[in-house]
Amino acid sequence: MRFIARFCKEKCDCFEIVSIYEEHIEKEEISKESPRIKTLAKKEPSAIWFERKMQDDFGIIIEDAFDKRPLVHQERFPKEIHPLRKEFQESSLQEAPYLQYKYEEIDGDGVFQVAVGPIHAGIIEPGHFQFSQAGEEMLHLEVRHFYKNRGIEKMLEGKTLQDAKPIIERISGNESIAYQICYRDIYLQATKQKLPLALQKRHALLLELERVIHHLTDIGFIPNDAGFGAALSFASKLSEDARRKMNELTGHRFGFGAVSFENSFIDTVSFHEWLDELEKSVEFFEDWIIDIPSLWDRFDTTGILPLKKAVKYASVGVVARASGVATDRRINPFYLEHGFVMASEVSGDVAGRFKVRLQELKNSILMMRNFLEEDDTKLEVTDICDGEYQSFCESSIGELFMAIDIKDGVIERFFVRDPSFMNWQAVHIMMRNDIIADFPLINKSCDLSYAGNDL
Amino acid sequence: MIKFWNKRVKLGVITEKPELEESLKKIRKEIKESVKKKFAGSLAIRMVDSGSCNACEAECNALSNPYFDLERLGIYFVASPRHADVMLLSGVMTFNMTPHVKEAYAQIPAPKWIISIGDCPMMQAPFEKNYAINAPVTEHLEVTHHIAGCPPNPVEIMEGILEFLRKI
Predict the structure, then answer these.
(1) What ipTM is given for this predicted complex?
(2) Residue A149 belongs to a domain
(3) Which residues, 6 or more positions from A277, have their beta carbon under 8 angstroms from its beta carbon?
(4) Where are the domains of chain B?
(5) Which residues are CB-neighbours of B22 under 8 A, at least 6 positions away?
(6) How far is the alpha carbon of B37 from chain A, nearest alpha carbon, in Å?
(7) CATH classification of B42-167 is 3.40.50.12280, yes or no?
(8) Do A130 and A242 have their domain in common?
(9) Do B96 and A149 lie within an 8 Å CB cutoff?
């Protein structure tokens, strides 16, 4: 019974707290006058961020929570403002006096704090990491995000599904296709239509291409963070080629606006040629990189997320599969028929995550061959019905969950849980036996999104 | 490693791929000369993300790949604003990032410039102004040059940097 998400909806006369599990959904209604709930974090540790987010966004009081600090609202955010409530309609905020955020810190003789972020020393998104250090060893890490909070959930309220699309595809640039597929599924549920197989295949092709781009970038950057720059040069060439393929197929290098209900022409011959070439390059890369012992010295046993903890924290995606958890939204007849094999490792360390990426890369190339076909199917979409819809998709990071409520033809509540939101909460576990110099390597091996997490 | 060097020798230099237009060659030459003249051979850029979707960052990372290889023109992405000449700013200036962006800018030694990148900082992306967004960035900081696009591709970014170099 894997925990997936927990979020709040504002109804006319009450708040509804929805908890999503793999096999069932729990709903709880609480009054608006005294919105109080009991915490779920004692059983499901990763519920804590969902609850702290609810507390900031809606002013829900988590009675027995052991952590009542704000999550989304930072030091200068005005107090007593809950922006996701329907009554809140301001379009700008005044900065409030600075109120210090109390980090989780370990005290003791010689123990010191290292604050990293929000702006990091590379071309990377902003987020804060607070380390408690005993010399080089990391005793504890607190991950603090939501610097990039753009208020997406509120922004989409009151929009039609069509108007919401350009925003949804730009929530997280690296996972744009996955977001669009989640959106597509909700759109089809709302119009009560079925997707023709040809369209499904084309969208799956794009999703795998996006995964290939993401993994190619990572298999370069992970060795680069261990000081092996040649891998980055090699892999970034391949990922640039893949990005140009995406541009050729969709007219956009990131595939914004690519998932539509009409298939356009693609040049399958040149695509097959490119796939053959890519497969050879990946084989060469694997053969080469596996032979570099100094690199695997850094990878092996670094940043271990044990299976038990991966399950406890309900991790998803590459991180979970590298720790031996069998979770993948692509385990379904459609994908299995097209050659899907779930990648899996048991070591749970940086090496495990690196190998999972290599396996997935090869599997995605195989599947893309099967998905590729010339086709011009078009689906005429019908009118949208009101209702509550949910969908899932396996993005390049992990399981993406989206829920949209439609009322009177417009979005009443938009909620999305990026895979990063779960995995960020497990990152501190990986730091227990390592030194601070390993942190960039561990962080990159997970390659989580900040934009999708912060919304 | 011998495998790698074999491959490396066979592959040769891919940076000047014939399929990339002649214009790119020209841009590179012009940038190189301009950087040499105006920044004594090295232009240091500090990339700051104030709430983008990560696509602009991915494209800036792509500038370092073997096809574009920006560093050989004397343009570097540096780790600290204190080493920078120029701040390259992406994203919608979220409420939470605004103080940090201002602080980073304050730490760049003068003379300093800001180049904004992508449609977000100018509020031209599909995102709408709301409580969490402080864009357009021009209300908070002085922007010398803007590189439009959602996201601008690496060639457009290079062109943008060239235009900026012409401006100053």
Answers:
(1) 0.87
(2) no
(3) none
(4) 42-167
(5) none
(6) 26
(7) yes
(8) no
(9) yes
